[in-house]
Amino acid sequence: MGTLQLLTEHACFGGVQRFYRHASGAIGLPMQFGLYLPPQALQGQKVPVVIYLAGLTCSEETFAIKAGAQQYAARLGLALLTPDTSPRDTDLDEANEAWDFGEAASFYLDATERPWSAAWQMETYITQELPTLMSHHLPIDTDRMGIFGHSMGGHGALTLALRNPGLFKSLSALAPICAPTQCPWGEKAFSGYLGLDRTSWLAHDASALMAEYPMPPYPDGILIDQGLADKFLPTQLHPEKFEEACAKIAQPLALRRHEGYDHGYYFIQSFVADHLAHHARALTPA
After folding, report:
1. Quick check: helix, strand or coil at residue 37?
2. What is the rounded distance in angstroms from the CA atom of residue 166 to the CA atom of residue 149?
3. What pLDDT is stored for residue 109 in this prediction?
4. Can you say whether the dihedral through the CA atoms of 28, 29, 30, 35 is positive or negative?
5. Which of 284, 219, 282, 230 has its CA nearest to residue 256?
6. What is the side-by-side order of every strand in the sheet holding 15-23?
7. Which of 63, 72, 100, 241 has the fewest Cβ atoms within 10 Å of its own Cβ atom?
8. 223-242: pLDDT as tens digits
9. Strand locations in 13-164, DSSP E?
10. pTM for the complete prediction?
11. Does residue 286 register a pLDDT over 80?
């Protein structure tokens, strides 16, 4: 089991916001993540954790700095884990040629195409390596994990939850990419990471995955918030596709559409408390 290097620690709402670095076996390179531990964890309790997956161009710091979520996590007794959005410093020239592919744009999958397959193993990293690190080194109860995310990270949250049944006890998303096989961001990422066989892409498309479930995987419901002033809504996000897939199998879904809200962190700040409350209902005892 690897070791964690504590980079920084900041007192925050009675708990601590930390940032760590470690040598990742899945990625083959150093990775960094943020972790907010609520006051309950500092008092000796093992607490549930909600993983937040950030969007394109973001890092492990973005949500911790911009969302204002720690105050709600402190009250609810939730840890917040924020992984980085991709491997870094890979020496691949192609990794920094575009803002929507390569570094900070992993789409949270295990790449199968070279050169990306060497390090872009983000599904394994998030679903296997990070939970093991948490359970060994930190006061985290990995039997009580939820996951949510924004945009590309919303896609990651939905697909990783649906691809790994039972791993995450609660699920939500903010302005997620809901049908990546049918949008330019997804087509670019999947063709590069997974190859040109479009049938293989469906295993990483939340709407396609949900439609294939024989019964609702989250009977207590999934929460999605979407701003109607989001410039990416018409071409990239397609929440209606996920809504249709959920309806097909009677999966309870609260898809809340909000006039005037765009794609950024002011939108996230406005609704993050609702998302953490949604996760707390599933992860903390009554």
Report:
1. strand
2. 18
3. 98
4. negative
5. 230
6. 5-12, 15-23, 30-37, 79-83, 47-53, 140-149, 170-174, 222-227, 253-258
7. 100
8. 999 999 999 999 999 999 99
9. 15-23, 30-37, 47-53, 79-83, 140-149
10. 0.97
11. no
